[in-house]
Structure formats: C-alpha cells, structure tokens
Amino acid sequence: MKHDLYEDQEVERLDREALKALQLLRLKKTVSTALSTPFYKKRLKDTGITSAKDIHTLEDIRKIPYTTKDDLREAYPYGLLSVELDEVVRMHASSGTTGTPTVIYHTQADLDNWTNLTVRSLKATGCHKGDVFQNMMTYGLFTGGIGLHYGAEKLGMLVIPASSGNTKRQFQLMKDFKTTTIHATPSYMLHLYSRMEELGYSLKDFNLKRALIGAEPHSEEVRQKIEDLFQIDAYNSYGLSEMNGPSVAFECTEKKGMHIWEDAYYVETIDRNSLEPVADGTEGELVLTILVRTGTPILRYRTKDLTTVMPEPCSCGRTSRRITRIKGRTDDMLIINGVNVFPSQIEEVIMKMPEIGNNYLIKVKKEGTLDRLTIHTEVGAELFTDDARDLYSLKSRIKEEVKALITINPAVELHEPGFLPVQLGKAIRVEDERGQVY
Ligand code: AMP
Ligand code: ZN
User: Fold this and answer.
1) Domain-embedded: residue 437
2) Would you say residue 58 lies in a domain?
3) Contact at 8 Å (CB) between 95 and 77?
4) Ligand 1 pocket, mutate which of 238, 303, 308, 348 (most atoms under 8 A from CB)
C-alpha cells in the first residue's frame, strides 16, 4: 500500500510507471466502491466485473460502460451513494438548467482529497501563503466558489469569499485588502474591467498579480485580453461538479495546457461518434473516472467537453499529462447551413481585434430555408462618431475573418458598451432561435 502514501509533492512528479501503478490500485478500489451502489451494481452486471479482482490492468477499464449525465439523473437521489448517509458531510448539485439535477455526495475524506488537489492547483499557478485570494465565483450548490475556498485557506492565503456579482463591492474589497489573486469566470473578468473607470477605480488602486479563470469555455485571445487589460497573469482552471469541481485540471506557470491530476482522475478521450478511444494528440471528448472519492464513485464519465491530451512532458517538471483548453462542449456545437461551428472559433476571431469590447453574443435563426448567423459585439464608445467609416471597416474585417475561418458569411452588429446582457455566472454566448439556448 506504499503507493497510497505518496506526499503531494512526490505524486506530482512520479514517473509514468509508478503513476500507472498508483492508478491501478486506486481504480480497483473505486470499482469495488462502485459495486456497492445500486446504480453500478446493475450497470456492471453484464460486464463480467463482479469485484475489484476482475480489474487486472488499467486497460480493463474499457470493459466498463460509459456513464452519462442522464445516468446520473436516473440515479437521483441516492442511486450512486456508496456509504451510509451519515458518513456524508457535503453534497453538491449540478447547475443543469433542465430536469432532475445530478447530486454528488462527499465524505470528509473526499473533501480532504479534493482540498489537497486544490492546494496543488493553486501552487502550480504560483499562489502562496501571504497572497490575498478574492473568490468571485458563486458560492452554493455550484462548486465554483466553495471548490477552491478550502484549498486556498489550507495554502495559507487570505481568502475573501466575495462570491459573484456586486461589482462595486468587488472593487472596494480589491483595493482595501490588496487582493493579489482573483478567481472568476473569464466573462466576469471582462465585465469587471469594463466597469472599473465608471466606478472610480484605476489599475493603480490594486495589487493584482494573477487571475484564475474557468467554469466556461474561453479562447486564448480572451486570456490574452484579460492579461493585457489588468496587467496580470491569467491561468485556466477546469473542473466539473461530477468530478468534484475546480481542480480537475489547472495550468501551471508555463501556461501551455492544463495539468490533469492523473493520480485522482483516469483520463480517456474518445471519438464522439464512434465512442472509441482516440490517441493522445487527437481531439476527442474527455472521459474521466474519479479515483479518489468514496461518497459517489463515477466511472468513465462522458464530460461532453472537447480537448486533446498532450503527452509531451512539461518543462515545469510535473509528470501528469496536460489537456489543451476546452474547445467547447459537444452539445455547444452549432450546425449552420450544414457546417459545424463552435462559438469558441468566432470568439477567437473577434477577441484578437483591439477595437472589440468585452462582451459578445452569437445569434442564429432561420431565414427562409437557410440559417443566418449574426455576431453581436460591443465596441469602444469612441467608434460611434458621425463618421461611420471606422465602424463599417471593422464590420467588414470581422465578416472576412470569420468567413475565412468557418466558411460562413455572418451578419455583424456593433453596439456601444453596456448594450449586451451582463454575464455574471457561466456566460450565455449563443441564442439559437431555431430552438436552443446554450
Ligand atoms: P459544472 O459542473 O456546472 O461546474 O460545469 C462544468 C462544465 O463547465 C464543464 O463540463 C465544462 O463544460 C465547463 N468548464 C469548466 N471549466 C472550464 C474551462 N476552464 N474551460 C472550458 N469549459 C469549462
Ligand atoms: Zn507544467
């Protein structure tokens, strides 16, 4: 059992063979835990897996069927609970907008494991004792807020549990308590900046060093924009409530992909049509198995998130593989006149243009038999003069560059700052008037 006793520092730098041995040990435990739940007892019935002894190698995981969000809903409320209820000390539920929520139960040991992963993630971005951590993610059933809270405290940061919204108060806290580190959605970071001057603040009032941004897809251009506007480093943070929440994968200070903590998560990527595993380096849907949770085991969870596993070692020395930034969710993909388009592709084009403001919205509707894509975006107030030439040329540039990337000719509408709806939680970037909202 030596393998389960690694110190965190050690586990981040284990050689691949030792890491795989640790994963196998933990996978066996997890399968055994899963078999104690009504859901997996039934699900594994026809697979020949009746105990952990039937798992000999990591590849044996492929005998286990995938678990989907619908499965978790079906198991509501207790179908995936694997301990006595009085062992559970916390529950979280998904932010799903429709139907039955999905519930995750944590024992104290589960929370301790999660906290350790968040300490590790925060350290990877350079956070340390003495930093002031203003947590602008929503606290509640959603895991974004509370998820990093305990790890930040354990690391010794001063934690300001500000939660989301109330932009004026956020600025006051940032100034009065010399916040060094913000945790927020990228869309909220952009919103924050757009209100700064009007609320009477400037960058000189603050002591900001970094932002941890996540909970929603965003492009490299948006990261760059946040870094330039605030003159800080911004690190991508990925997680989902089914796999605890934030700290599934995190960027280190190299900022080249997110380390996925493989001692805690077994990583697969699959082709979203054939559902067969794809090789590292090939884009696919991320499938995760949590290896260190006893309250709610989840095996081979189809996250719907599209990414690519990067097998090359990172120069920071951590040996866990990295994943590329999430391109989007498979269910975010728009099909416009037969062409597959991810909102992140459009974001990439517009956010690298300096004239573009901090908010945008993509609308799709039917015009006759055809689909019509319209990009609404805010631009600086200074562009709205009597002379419309600048606006006109910006519009043409957006149209041309979007067309070059996705082959679809969009309509573009430019608006003054503050025109589009403010995004406080996970940003809604697409209104599909053909019947779906993302
Ligand atoms: P929830 O379980 O409600 O916290 O939502 C988790 C989902 O948010 C993930 O499956 C992703 O689709 C999305 N998400 C979280 N973090 C990121 C990130 N850094 N980049 C892109 N999408 C993210
Ligand atoms: Zn690294």
Assistant:
1) no
2) yes
3) no
4) 238
User: What pTM value is reported for the model?
Assistant: 0.89
More confident residue, 100 or 166: 166
Residue 438 has pLDDT above 80, yes or no: no
| CA 250 to centroid of ligand 1, rounded, Å | 12
In a domain, 384, yes or no: yes
Total structural domains within the chain = 2
Nearest CA to ligand 1 atom 5: 240
Same domain (yes/no): 310, 348: no
Domain holding 226, by residue range, is 1-330
Which ligand has the shortest distance to the CA of 315?
2
Task: Identify whether residues 252 and 356 lie together within a single domain.
Answer: no
> Which of 306, 330, 354 lies at the terminal end of a domain, its last residue?
330
pLDDT in tens, 320-367: 999 999 998 888 888 888 888 889 889 999 999 999 988 999 999 988
Sign of CA dihedral 285, 274, 331, 340: positive
Pocket probe mutation, ligand 1, options 121, 216, 251, max atoms within 8 Å of Cβ:
216
DSSP output for 393-418: HHHHHHHHHHHHHHS---EEEEE-TT
6 confidence band (pLDDT: 50, 70, 90): low
Claim to verify: residue 196 and residue 317 sit in the same structural domain: yes
d(CA 326, CA 306): 6
Q: Does the residue 385 lie in any domain?
A: yes
How many angstroms is it from 250 CA to the middle of ligand 2? Answer: 9
Which residues, listed in sequence order, are joined to residue 225 by a DSSP beta bridge?
none
Contacts of residue 61, defined as CB under 8 A and 6 or more positions apart, other chains included, come to 27, 55, 266, 268, 289, 299, 300
Among 330, 346, 363, which residue terminates a domain?
330
Tell me: do 379 and 324 sit in the same domain: no
Number of the ligand closest to the Cα of 120: 2
Taking a 5 Å cut-off on Cβ, the residues next to ion ligand 2 are 252, 254, 314, 316, 318
Instruction: Render pLDDT for 17-65 as a digit per residue (tens, 0 to 9).
Output: 999 999 999 999 999 999 999 999 999 999 999 999 999 999 999 999 9
Sign, CA dihedral 159-160-162-164, equals negative
